[in-house]
């Protein structure tokens, strides 16, 4: 999953980005509303964390512009304001959730997980596909109850596919959603990670759909 953090406080921005990266996400960052709005319009994020009190363009204006253009990316707003009217304004502009500063990082991470689950139609932190279970809260993967150790990139790939179980995902989409803006992207590496995942999982749930991409389908699991 790929996220965008738009926060003008340099230290807080770095703390959020670091926490999200450690949780297994690919993360881009912007320090003002103008840059944040541009990235949100040009990059395919799975969720955005947006501060309201931004320089150049305020967060509500940024969010309003995204929604006016029909962009449906889930957004969590950050605000140091404790007035209920500011929260209402954020929700009316199109926000999906909010966190009031100061906040505990674990709360923000939990809200991000919940937002991503809801946006892809999952009800709990544990996502299953046949014998494979992925716990988005702990970042652990198990097959038939047996833990499977994955690298960060392998986990990102499996997590994205499991969040989109039953839908064909192209290599291009995977490349766009698994790597941040500064990563040297090469869609051929996706094939390498798919091969490693299949070997480590040991079950046939990742199907290759020729010319289209990959499909996670538990019905094809071999006994």
Automatic annotation (TrEMBL):
<dbReference type="GO" id="GO:0005829">
    <property type="term" value="C:cytosol"/>
</dbReference>
<dbReference type="GO" id="GO:0032993">
    <property type="term" value="C:protein-DNA complex"/>
</dbReference>
<dbReference type="InterPro" id="IPR011006">
    <property type="entry name" value="CheY-like_superfamily"/>
</dbReference>
<dbReference type="InterPro" id="IPR001867">
    <property type="entry name" value="OmpR/PhoB-type_DNA-bd"/>
</dbReference>
<dbReference type="GO" id="GO:0006355">
    <property type="term" value="P:regulation of DNA-templated transcription"/>
</dbReference>
<keyword id="KW-0902">Two-component regulatory system</keyword>
<dbReference type="InterPro" id="IPR001789">
    <property type="entry name" value="Sig_transdc_resp-reg_receiver"/>
</dbReference>
<protein>
    <submittedName>
        <fullName>Two-component system OmpR family response regulator</fullName>
    </submittedName>
</protein>
<dbReference type="Pfam" id="PF00072">
    <property type="entry name" value="Response_reg"/>
</dbReference>
<feature type="domain" description="Response regulatory">
    <location>
        <begin position="2"/>
        <end position="116"/>
    </location>
</feature>
<keyword id="KW-0238">DNA-binding</keyword>
<dbReference type="Pfam" id="PF00486">
    <property type="entry name" value="Trans_reg_C"/>
</dbReference>
<feature type="DNA-binding region" description="OmpR/PhoB-type">
    <location>
        <begin position="124"/>
        <end position="218"/>
    </location>
</feature>
<dbReference type="InterPro" id="IPR039420">
    <property type="entry name" value="WalR-like"/>
</dbReference>
<keyword id="KW-0597">Phosphoprotein</keyword>
<dbReference type="GO" id="GO:0000976">
    <property type="term" value="F:transcription cis-regulatory region binding"/>
</dbReference>
<dbReference type="InterPro" id="IPR016032">
    <property type="entry name" value="Sig_transdc_resp-reg_C-effctor"/>
</dbReference>
<keyword id="KW-0805">Transcription regulation</keyword>
<keyword id="KW-0804">Transcription</keyword>
<dbReference type="InterPro" id="IPR036388">
    <property type="entry name" value="WH-like_DNA-bd_sf"/>
</dbReference>
<dbReference type="GO" id="GO:0000156">
    <property type="term" value="F:phosphorelay response regulator activity"/>
</dbReference>
<feature type="modified residue" description="4-aspartylphosphate">
    <location>
        <position position="51"/>
    </location>
</feature>
<feature type="domain" description="OmpR/PhoB-type">
    <location>
        <begin position="124"/>
        <end position="218"/>
    </location>
</feature>
């Amino acid at each position: 999953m790929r996220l965008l953090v738009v926060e003008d406080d340099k230290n807080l921005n770095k703390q959020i980005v670091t926490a999200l990266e450690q949780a297994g996400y690919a993360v881009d960052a912007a320090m003002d509303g103008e840059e944040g709005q541009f990235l949100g319009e040009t990059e395919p994020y799975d969720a955005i964390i947006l501060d309201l009190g931004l320089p150049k363009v305020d967060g509500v204006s940024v969010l309003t512009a995204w929604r006016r253009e029909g962009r449906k990316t889930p957004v969590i707003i950050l605000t140091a304001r404790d007035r209920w009217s500011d929260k209402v304004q954020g929700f009316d502009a199109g926000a999906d959730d909010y966190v009031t500063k100061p906040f505990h990082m674990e709360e923000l991470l939990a809200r991000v997980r919940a937002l991503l689950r809801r946006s892809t139609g999952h009800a709990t932190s544990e996502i299953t596909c046949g014998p494979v279970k992925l716990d988005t809260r702990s970042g652990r993967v198990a097959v038939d109850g047996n833990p499977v150790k994955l690298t960060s990139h392998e986990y990102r790939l499996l997590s994205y596919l499991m969040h989109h179980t039953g839908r064909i995902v192209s290599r291009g989409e995977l490349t766009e959603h698994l790597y941040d803006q500064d990563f040297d992207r090469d869609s051929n590496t996706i094939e390498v990670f798919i091969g490693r995942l299949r070997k480590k999982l040991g079950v046939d749930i990742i199907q290759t759909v020729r010319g289209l991409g990959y499909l996670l389908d538990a019905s094809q699991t071999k006994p």
